[in-house]
Amino acid sequence: MTESQINFLKEVKESNNIVDHKSHEKNISDLINFLKSYKIISKKNTNSFEVSDGFLFHKLLDVKSMSDFEKWYSHKDKFIVSHDFSGATIGQFNQSDFLKIDKTEIKQITPPKTNEKQYILIVSFIVKFWWAFIIPLAATIVGILIEKGIIDIGFNF
């Protein structure tokens, strides 16, 4: 890539926006077409584009060459990394692209669900009649405290 293309990409990195003008130099127009072809940018509105794949955009900035980017892009999906946790008891796992993938069934224990209608009925009953429970309970507690002599109201029975 030319210095003007790299500077253009740095400007796009700052603004995340590309205005497509016919007045761009040929190498900038070629760069915009390159970005469109790899779906690194997408149409925002009539005359502007925005970065849609930041990973590929930053990779292009890192390699600083369209041909190197094309080589990297053609090989990027060939390596599949699998994580092997089998038999690991010390928090260690091994990472490699040649490990055998063992399909194991994960048994997830889920608690039994309560009947939602019953739950709604109970909650609505409590919301409607909470005062009918609280007032007698409070009166009973105060009565017991008075009877035990913990609360003195000034009367002797």
What percent strand? 5-15%
- The total tally of domains equals 2
Alpha-beta classification: mainly alpha
How much helix, percentage-wise, in residues? 40-55%
Main β sheet profile: 3 strands, antiparallel
Radius of gyration: 35 Å
SSE arrangement, N to C: HEHEEHHEEH
Mean pLDDT: 77
The rough form would be described as elongated
Straight-line distance between termini: 101 Å
How many helical stretches? 5
Task: Detail the poorly predicted runs.
Answer: none
What is the total tally of β strands? 5
Strand arrangement, largest sheet?
A: 1-3-2
How would you describe what is shown here?
Helices cover 50% and strands 11% of the residues. A 3-stranded antiparallel beta sheet has the order 1-3-2. A hairpin with a 2-residue loop joins strand 2 and strand 3 (48-51). It contains 5 helices and 5 strands. The protein folds into 2 domains: 3-75, no CATH class; 113-157, no CATH class. The model has no long low-confidence stretch (mean pLDDT 77). With 157 residues, it is mostly helical. The longest helix is centred in the C-terminal third of the chain and has 33 residues, at 116-148. The chain has helices at 3-15, 26-37, 54-63, 66-75, 116-148, and strands at 17-19, 41-45, 48-51, 82-84, 94-96.
Please outline what is shown here:
The chain crosses the membrane at residues 119-146. By secondary structure, the chain is mainly alpha-helical.
